[in-house]
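1st attempt posting a full record on here, be nice pls
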Amino acid sequence: MHLHTLTAFRHEHVFLGADHARNERKTWTVISICGAMMVAEIGGGAVFGSMALLADGLHMSTHASALLIAALAYAYARRHARNDRFTFGTGKLGDLAGFTSAIVLALIALLIGYESALRLFHPVPIAFAEAIPVAVLGLGVNVLSARLLREDHPHYEHEPQAEATPYAARAHDQVHGHGHDLNLRAAYVHVLADAAVSVLAIIGLLAGQQLGWVWMDPLMGIVGALVIANWAWGLVRLTGAVLLDMRPDPALSAAIEQRLERGRDRIADLHLWRVGPGHHAAVVALVSDQPERPSTYKARLRDLPGLSHVTVEVEPCPGSHAKQ
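the predicted structure (as tokens):
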């Protein structure tokens, strides 16, 4: 076989998201904003002796660390996208980073809940005049950060409305949208969680300052911890499903079956999994008493959005009348 003929059958395994580079830049931008705020708060707390500034700066550092995980995952996936050691490319590295960020988010929720429970039963003096402006400033930074990450934040395929929509009708949004980048979503959830904590903190602090309800501050902390834990669990479920190669889209499976099961061609086995944001791989085993070449079956699937890597094997089965 001539080399140029063999080359025609080879292909790359680059399964990065459509907006990988842009999402990477946005994540680094948010890290810069959060990092500057973190340094200013920790420095201000140390210089002016403000525990409120110091505590919020240390809290901001945990989210900045999680965002750094997301940014480094983008950079590594981009640099090693064509590395042959990765059988199906580096597209799932963002899902691994998202899973890690979800664990970090869960730990943050536990720490906030623990500290809030202690303060509920053992109240400590609160410097309301200092704490409220810090919480408001933190909220502003987090809203700005969330806005930067939220611009292209998509609807995800696990959502109930997606299941009821035919695959062909929503495939373009899934693939060409900024779709399904769970690394970006993890970063977004982190800053959103911080914003939620800031809102609840402001409510608790105002209630303590104006009404004397000092217990409201730790109570809002417990509420915030429960909200963050719920978001973390949602991220764990989404990213874990990708890392375990769960079948991602029933509608895509149905579309594959519809296109391949013609005449007496029948699917004996179908493996479908996600290899990157907006990219899926499929391995299909067909049986037929009038088999075609594998390339014929691949051609039937060529225009299915999001189906980026297809392997087809065909077994002749004379006289078989498989599933009708």
